[in-house]
Amino acid sequence: METVNVNGIQLAFERHGKGTPLVLLHGFPLDHHLWDEVVPLLEDRFDVILPDLRGFGDSTTVDSPYSMDDYASDIAGLLDQIDIQKAAIVGHSMGGYVALAFARLYPERVSGLGLVSSQLPADAPERKEGRYKSAADVSANGIGSVVETMTPKFTSAEKLQALARASMERQPPAGYIGALKAMAERMDSTALLSSLKVPVVVIHGDTDALIPIDRAREVKATLPEAHLIEIPGAGHIPMLEAVKETAEALRKLA
User: Fold this and answer.
1) Superfamily per CATH, domain 2-121+187-253
2) Using one digit for the tens of pLDDT, what is the confidence trace for 47-73?
3) Phi and psi dihedrals of 11, rounded to 5?
């Protein structure tokens, strides 16, 4: 992997292919390897950029609190350093929140937006409280409880559960804590979406146990011209559960 210095951290990333710049942002609490299976199906048409968000994978983080805007600023700094002015930004789950923050802060730099197993609303009060409790638990006891809780919710496929667990177990506690707090404080993005003038692709499994498919349908209702791809039988990680369908949907952003 390559690294760049942005916002006081080392941001790690991989890059594959040629064509339209396409940034793929992983979800919580994973890293860029989430996208490994779809990259070979995209690199003929896209310059695929795969960052590890701060605190995850090979990227470092800071001790002070940070926000979705800070994650988005990291991506903008990465694009600056690799001389890319505009890109399609795709995010999975929490990565979708980062993609939405990027679109709000840097609309002139977005050629397209993809939301995979993600959503527009901010956290309800009880969900926000739950994230802070989870962050406190990770601080006191480590990541084990979050890993145990989330693993079966990613997918019903045992082999893919094992992959998700292994990825989660690689991540440092500081990344969990920073991300949980940032997600708790994120903005509602419903109004933002209706202002976008670029192609929007929404990909969601219809058995997602973490973010229900109704959230994807809300995106379509907010922005009727968005491309909504519902994947039957897929859970929260369609890029691993339905590789070809996910890649074909993302190719609409070329």
Assistant:
1) Alpha/Beta hydrolase fold, catalytic domain (3.40.50.1820)
2) 999 999 999 999 999 999 999 999 999
3) -100, 120
